[in-house]
Every structure is written in C-alpha cells, then in structure tokens.
Specification:
The chain has about 120 residues and is mainly α. It contains five helices and no strands. Helices cover about 75% and strands about 0% of the residues.
Length: about 120
C-alpha cells in the first residue's frame, strides 16, 4: 500500500486533469441533450471547477487510503457529475470528519452576517 501522507504532484495534476476532462464532457453532453448551444465561457468554468473538485476528491481518497484505480473512478465521476454536485458530496464528507452539520455551518454564516439565529417555525 502507498503512504497516505506521501504527496505526488504529477499524479495529482493527472487526476485533476482527468476530472476536468470529465467535467467538460459532462457539461457538453448535458447541454447537447437539452438541445442548447454550448457556451465556451461556461465550458471553461465547468472544466476548471471540475478539476478543482477532482483534486479535492483525490486528496480525500488519498487520506482514506483508497486504491489508485478507485481514486481514478471517484475523481472521474466527480468531474462528470459536475463541480456543484461534487462539492456538496465533499462538503458532507468534510463535515462528518470535523463532527459538524450543515446547520452548524449555516448558523456560523448567519452570525457572520449579523443575522440572529431564528427557529424554523417562524
């Protein structure tokens, strides 16, 4: 097995590029399926964002000592389903690791913006 604390920059870039490619292809195919024109600005943003979440997914897989093959599958899928969906999954993983909930995060955001913590029944 590999050392989860070992960082290999070349492999990291490769995984991020793989996710970016998946994100680009996912965006193009979803757009074509909707019979909409492809926006090259949106394609660029989707590609970069997918590369970013792919890198996060790769780091998470490395931390959990996931095999390189499964890391590739997870990274590729995180790019394919898109950055927005992937980041929500990664947020959940991070929240569980830190022992916090989405409600904790929302409360912190509300406090940061000076909004009082209001009960749900109002």
């Amino acid at each position: 097995m590999r050392d989860p604390n070992e960082f290999n920059f070349a492999h990291s870039v490769g995984y991020a590029a793989f996710a970016a490619f998946g994100g680009a292809m996912g965006y193009v195919l979803r757009t074509m399926d909707a019979t909409q024109p492809v926006s090259y600005r949106r394609l660029t943003v989707e590609t970069c964002a997918s590369g970013f979440v792919g890198a996060l997914a790769m780091l998470a897989c490395n931390a959990m000592d996931v095999s390189p093959t499964w890391t590739g599958v997870i990274v590729g899928m995180s790019g394919w389903i898109g950055a927005t969906a992937s980041i929500r999954l990664i947020e959940t993983l991070v929240y569980k690791r830190l022992g916090i909930t989405r409600e904790d995060v929302q409360t912190a955001k509300d406090m940061e913006h000076g909004q009082p913590n209001q009960p749900d029944n109002q």
